[in-house]
Amino acid sequence: MKQVLLTIILPGVVLGSVLSGCSSGDETTKNHPGGAVFAGASVVNLGSINSEWDDFAPVLNATETELLFTSNRPHEGHNTFIDDESKYGEAIFSSVGGGTTWQAPMLNVTFSSTRFNSGTLSLTADNRTVFLGASYHEKGSGGNDICVTQWNGNSWSPPTPVPGINSPWWDSHPAVSPDGSMLVFASDRLPQPPTTEVTGRRQVDLWMTTRDAEGNWSPPVPLPSNVNSEASEISPQFGPDGYLYFATNRLENRGFDIARTRHVSDTTWTPPEYLPAPVNSAYNDCFPFLTADRNRILFASDRAGGHGGFDLYATDFPYRIRLAGTVRLTSETGTSVPA
Q1: Domain span at residue 252?
Q2: Which CATH number is 303's domain given?
Q3: What is the dihedral of CA 312, 303, 270, 317, to 10 degrees?
Q4: How high is the mean pLDDT in each 10-residue block of the chain (339 residues)?
Q5: Measuring CA to CA, which residue among 48, 23, 4, 42 is closest to residue 312?
Q6: pTM of the shown model
Q7: Which burial class, exposed, middle or buried, applies to 236 when counting CB atoms under 10 A from its CB (0-12, 13-18, 19+)?
Q8: Dihedral, 142, 137, 172, 192 alpha carbons, nearest 10
Q9: Number of domains in the chain
């Protein structure tokens, strides 16, 4: 049975030790919490884009022809193994394709850096603004910061920390709402500044900030206690269905499971509901991404049978709506109308 995850991400790492304390699960807990199963669905490993290292945080562009993800595999400027936690350092990779078929990934030099770890992207609906996490940015607040880069019509601006939302602690996993007015992210900061030095490991919670008409972001506030828990919540991502998807390890004797919640008003969110198996498993399942047509969900998992570490997977979305039947057109008199 897998162990409870560590409750802190070290400042210099985008994925880091929040997952490094996980061990594989056993078959006694393979179903999602509550035993719900999405009948007929099968999970597909995305194949050769995965590596023996950790591959996670999948994001599709607007046309769903380019897959961007984060990996700590060896790459340009990072060919020296750091440690078991950081591997070779995180960077962003791109692959061209569609569905579950993707070409060999390439290092995305636009969003990656040879100076610091970078990863966990979130794109606005128009694909002109990208938020990402970056560690020890020269203009950052310390540790890991949320950065932003924008398309100016010819090129992307250098990623720079988002003003007013970062802390001296670990801030990453940004998720921008479809309309660009809200940003949810993961952080191990404390709700109140400590009066004494804080050491050791801290839990990771989800925080939110909203943007005003002038483009300024409000001071971040934690999501309510029905979403955040005494464990850790990570990898948020807004879906096209209006839900916020994320991963939590609040359940005893389980690692991370994927859940979803919906923003109601101000700081009110609906109670989270877990996605069924086979999305959730006895292993660690996180970094969900729902496709625009709501038919498929991509995610990362360290379940058995992968290439090593965390791999990228896809499966049918459990809550998609499919209509079956015959459409018959009739006139006002009730007679059939030819198609």
Answers
A1: 17-316
A2: 2.120.10.30
A3: 60
A4: 34 45 37 55 91 95 93 78 74 91 89 74 92 76 85 89 92 94 94 54 89 95 95 96 96 90 93 93 96 94 93 86 55 58
A5: 48
A6: 0.83
A7: buried
A8: 20
A9: 1
